[in-house]
Design goal:
mainly alpha; 10 helices
Length: 232
Amino acid sequence: MDGGAFTTAFHLIVSLDPTLGGIVALSLRVTLTAVLVSCLIGLPVGAALAMGRFPGRSFVVVFFNALMGLPPVVAGLVVYLMLSRSGPLGDLGLLFTPTAMIVAQTALILPIVVSLTRQVVEDLWKEYEEQLRSLGATSMRAIPTLLWDGRFSLLTAVLAGFGRASAEVGAVLIVGGNIAGHTRTMTTAIALETARGDLALALGLGIILLAITLVLNAGAFFTGRLAQRASG
């Protein structure tokens, strides 16, 4: 491979190339928003699923666990059908916008947050149930305490969701359209620029995406260590 592509890629990063910077900024904005929405919905839903007892609960648990492995292209197709002109939400005009990409990524992250939150809260409830009940807490009233106590483990779940969304191509490509300056993310730009032969920009974006992945894994590792120390 021509070493000039690597040199140009590093130059694009160091010089804060506006095209590269715009793609990275959009990617982070979309993914972080999807993570935030998934946490606002997934944390309370996962905790309620852990503490609640109702008919069909086992099915709901299995359903969310199964969705953790949902293929991104399937999620993208479902969101596309919902947001297309003939879909139920077509009048909103959200298809091929960053909002549609946020919806698609939320669909991918939400099952992860729900399922892992349920497992964490269930485990903590088994450990502290007797103590919390002695203090007068019911199962539902204990949820905020359990969420706070499991914050390090839950942060790992959030990082896992962020990692899945940031490396995703299929769903955002289907609902976003990979429009330059509007819906082009790091992953879709890497695929496009590689096909076009512009390896410098693809490598630059790849280096940044790899750096983000390394930071996420380091964050998950040290979060786990903090959780072990806190429990010890």
